Amino acid sequence: MDNHKIQILMDSLLPLLKAGVAFTIPLTLVSFAIGLLLAVLTALVRLSSWRIPKLIAGFYVWVIRGTPLLLQLFIIFYGLPAVGIILEPFTAAVIGFSLSVGAYSSEIVRAAIISIHKGQWEAAFSVGMTRGQALRRVILPQAARVSVPPLANSFISLVKDTSLAASITYVEMFRTAQQVVAATYEPLLLYCEAGVIYLIFSTVLSTLQNYLEKRFDRYSAS
């Protein structure tokens, strides 16, 4: 590699890192937090006896899981202005990613709740808890331990999926790499560099995931 390419890598490193920390990570955190809340609500509704809400929740999961995330982002950002709804790129990205996380993670949460033995419900009822209290104090804490590994995987996947926000002009890390490529005409170099940074982010998060799993396993064993 010649000195010119090395200099391009060095010059682009800081802008890419700044875009990752200032835009990619916040987008991931906000979207995942909202999506996780939506996932829990959706899972609880689908496990309830409310017929109409169950149908609505099921329809939402069916649509989101059955259509490409990129298409959903395009509809939100480029399609909604046709009916008078104009959103900023960040807002559109948060809505798109949150809906996606909510749909996929709701299946994780729902499966985790179902996996809890019915004896736990009976034990909670035997000490006078209502269904809501049993769910909040007994079932959900146990379901959370079961959900940690798959939800952590979803979070790591979301970090990488945020690169799709570049398609709706949100200047996150991948969009920044595209801008640098347009100025330097070094696509292979810059995209590989962006890939390495995504890999570093994912590795750090995977390490954190392993730590959380061990913590939850320790509590479960106790």
UniProtKB/TrEMBL annotation:
<dbReference type="InterPro" id="IPR010065">
    <property type="entry name" value="AA_ABC_transptr_permease_3TM"/>
</dbReference>
<keyword id="KW-0813">Transport</keyword>
<comment type="similarity">
    <text>Belongs to the binding-protein-dependent transport system permease family.</text>
</comment>
<feature type="transmembrane region" description="Helical">
    <location>
        <begin position="188"/>
        <end position="208"/>
    </location>
</feature>
<feature type="transmembrane region" description="Helical">
    <location>
        <begin position="20"/>
        <end position="45"/>
    </location>
</feature>
<keyword id="KW-0812">Transmembrane</keyword>
<dbReference type="InterPro" id="IPR043429">
    <property type="entry name" value="ArtM/GltK/GlnP/TcyL/YhdX-like"/>
</dbReference>
<dbReference type="InterPro" id="IPR035906">
    <property type="entry name" value="MetI-like_sf"/>
</dbReference>
<keyword id="KW-1133">Transmembrane helix</keyword>
<dbReference type="GO" id="GO:0015184">
    <property type="term" value="F:L-cystine transmembrane transporter activity"/>
</dbReference>
<protein>
    <submittedName>
        <fullName>Cysteine ABC transporter permease</fullName>
    </submittedName>
</protein>
<dbReference type="InterPro" id="IPR000515">
    <property type="entry name" value="MetI-like"/>
</dbReference>
<dbReference type="GO" id="GO:0043190">
    <property type="term" value="C:ATP-binding cassette (ABC) transporter complex"/>
</dbReference>
<keyword id="KW-1003">Cell membrane</keyword>
<feature type="transmembrane region" description="Helical">
    <location>
        <begin position="57"/>
        <end position="80"/>
    </location>
</feature>
<keyword id="KW-0029">Amino-acid transport</keyword>
<feature type="domain" description="ABC transmembrane type-1">
    <location>
        <begin position="21"/>
        <end position="209"/>
    </location>
</feature>
<dbReference type="Pfam" id="PF00528">
    <property type="entry name" value="BPD_transp_1"/>
</dbReference>
<keyword id="KW-0472">Membrane</keyword>
